[in-house]
Write a structure and sequence with these properties.
single chain, 203 residues, Rossmann fold, 7-stranded mixed sheet, 7 helices, 44% helix
Length: 203
């Protein structure tokens, strides 16, 4: 199976669904992490992203879009159309469409547009921590037990040392805390949850 996960920036994917990607790669599936833009400290953050991808057993692709031009547009949809065509994923994960960060919303909308006419299952992961307060509610509809790979998830987040320096250890507490909460909801130790855009069962 080919699994594609999209994130606007370095660390978005690891925070939102690093455990799920680790589980896919451990089972032998092909995993691609796609980052749209690197807004600052470019050289350092690319190296951090490469390290995180290795930890999760994933390939990494960076589109290098100018941060000022990362908006929901025909141009962005065309960029993602090309990725979909080249990689031919079976499963696609993207940002939550009601995320408080405008870049995350742009990627979510462009993903929905670029997957509208194909047979890919599409899911949205939760808003990145730290994230702003929004007047919407994330509705977890699909859960993945990540208890056996929580350390890989944490390692992939810690690989982004530049962000750990900015956000301090409370950042990690928040990420692990949410995984604990989602795990509690399904009677496991840790989990990640997703909203479903379309779920195509292969029977």
């Amino acid at each position: 199976m080919r699994v594609l996960s999209l994130g606007a920036h370095p660390d978005d994917i690891e925070i939102g669904m690093g455990g799920t990607l680790a589980k896919y790669s451990k089972k032998g599936h092909e995993v691609l992490m796609l980052i749209a833009t690197v807004p600052n400290k470019k050289e350092m953050r690319i190296k951090e992203s490469e390290k995180a991808a290795r930890i999760l057993g994933a390939e990494l692709n960076i589109l290098n879009i100018n941060p000022e031009k990362l908006v929901f547009s025909r141009e962005l949809v065309r960029e993602l159309d090309k990725v979909m065509s080249d990689f031919c994923p079976d499963v696609v994960f993207t940002h939550w469409v009601h995320d408080s960060h405008q870049d995350h919303v742009s990627i979510a909308k462009a993903t929905i547009a670029s997957t509208r006419k194909n047979g890919y299952s599409v899911y949205m992961y939760e808003q990145t921590i730290p994230g702003g307060i929004v007047p919407y509610c994330f509705r977890p509809q699909m859960y993945v037990d990540i208890s056996d790979v929580i350390e890989l998830k944490k390692e992939s987040v810690i690989a982004h040392k530049s962000q750990l320096d900015v956000n301090n250890e409370w950042w990690l507490y928040g990420i692990e805390g949410r995984a604990t909460y989602r795990g509690y909801q399904i009677r496991s130790k840790y989990a990640e949850s997703f909203e479903i855009i379309k779920d195509i069962l292969k029977i």
